[in-house]
Amino acid sequence: MVGKAIAGVRDRVFLVSKVYPHNASQRGIPLACERSLRRLGTDYIDLYLLHWRGQFPLAETVEAFERLRDDGKIGRWGVSNFDVADLYELGPRTCATNQVLYNLEERGIEFDLLPWCQQQRMPLMAYCPIAQAGGLLVEPTLKQIAARHNVTAAQVSLAWILRQDGVIAIPKAVHPEHLQLNAAASELKLDAEDFQALDQAFGAPTRKHRLAMV
Ligand SMILES: NC(=O)c1ccc[n+]([C@@H]2O[C@H](COP(=O)([O-])OP(=O)(O)OC[C@H]3O[C@@H](n4cnc5c(N)ncnc54)[C@H](OP(=O)(O)O)[C@@H]3O)[C@@H](O)[C@H]2O)c1
Predict the structure, then answer these.
(1) What is the predicted pLDDT for the residue at 72?
(2) Residue 55 CB coordination number (10 Å)
């Protein structure tokens, strides 16, 4: 489906894909990448991520990623669902991003992972940024703030994520209206009063939390 969508506009698209941990070996990664390229109908992926940690040593996975990069099959590589200890183990490498669960209901990473990534200047990619359009979107505080700015609750939850340096949000949207609203959320500026109300409704973490995943 993505292959069909990007046909003819490949150079205007930033294409991200992931490799499963069971394929993340020296031998498995190039094969998995070739399969993805074939399905996507392209000859390179802009950013290729390890979906989560698995059985293969990180050094082996990274070496395979770097070979793909040197061969021009991928632009950059990164990781997903890595906590601080995993990133430490990864060491000072050229990891482009860490894609993790982050939204108003799941703020655990603010305690340690997010500051660590910001300090390392490693962009953090927030997945499920609107909490899969579940109960979050009808939460009263969020709805009030949305009404005050004449926007939607989903847009407030995206603007809240984008308030910080080095954080990217990747909402998934199929409906064109959702896509347009989400793109417009990058222009929305929340104020101190909004942030205070959101902190009261969705407390920031005061201790280390196990990294949440979906
Ligand atoms: N790395 C990982 O382990 C991992 C795990 C889970 C997800 N992800 C990635 O994260 C991305 C997003 O995750 P997700 O789809 O689970 O959650 P999400 O982006 O928080 O929520 C998606 C849902 O929100 C709806 N939506 C989008 N924009 C909206 C808007 N403006 N107003 C109201 N509803 C809106 C979508 O509807 P429509 O589609 O109908 O427009 C869809 O039902 C995915 O692309 C996925 O690849 C990564």
Answers:
(1) 98
(2) 8
The atom number, within ligand 1, closest to the CA of 158 reads 31
Domains of the chain as residue ranges with CATH: 2-201 (3.20.20.100)
Global pTM value: 0.97
Question: Per the structure block, which two tokens stand in for 72?
Answer: 């021009």
CA dist 176 and 165 (Å) reads 27
Which atom of ligand 1 sits closest to the CA of residue 137? 33
- Is beta strand 45-50 parallel, antiparallel or unpaired with respect to 16-19? parallel
**98 Cβ below 6 A of ligand 1:** no
Summarised one tens digit per residue, pLDDT across range 68-81 is 999 999 999 999 99
The protein residue with its alpha carbon nearest to ligand 1, atom 10, reads 127
Ligand 1 in reach of 148 Cβ (< 6 A): no
CA of 154 to the centre of ligand 1 (A): 11
Q: Is 127 in the pocket of ligand 1 (CB under 6 A)?
A: yes
Q: What is the CA radius of gyration of the chain?
A: 18
- Residue in 128, 161, 162, 181 to alter for ligand 1 test, most ligand atoms within 8 A of Cβ: 128
Nearest to 127 by CA among 149, 154, 97, 101: 101
Handedness of CA 152, 156, 162, 168 (dihedral sign): negative
Token look-up 């040197």 returns: 70
The Cα–Cα gap between 94 and 76 comes to: 8
